[in-house]
Specification:
The protein contains 5 helices and no strands. The chain has one domain: lambda repressor-like DNA-binding domains (434 Repressor (Amino-terminal Domain), Orthogonal Bundle).
Length: 97
Amino acid sequence: MSPEDLQVSLGYVIRRHRERLQFSQEAFAEVVGVHRTYYGDIERCKQNPSLWNLQRIALALQLPLSQLIAEAEAVDLAVREPPSPPRRGRPLGRRSR
């Protein structure tokens, strides 16, 4: 698995576990102690988290870091589950007045 594929898989696994715990990205980022945009970028594979931050994420997910990485390595990117539907709110493309 290439480093890029591992980063994509890791973001996917982290998101799946966060949703299992029923946290929003913003609330989970606060628990972890990182900025919400930084955390969102980790899930969207735009940010490569440090080992320090990965350990903090694993602790917040109540998982050993080794399990988080092992799950990411086991994910087959070709058969991932479809992403969850977007959050409820204002319809896309409409501006607030």
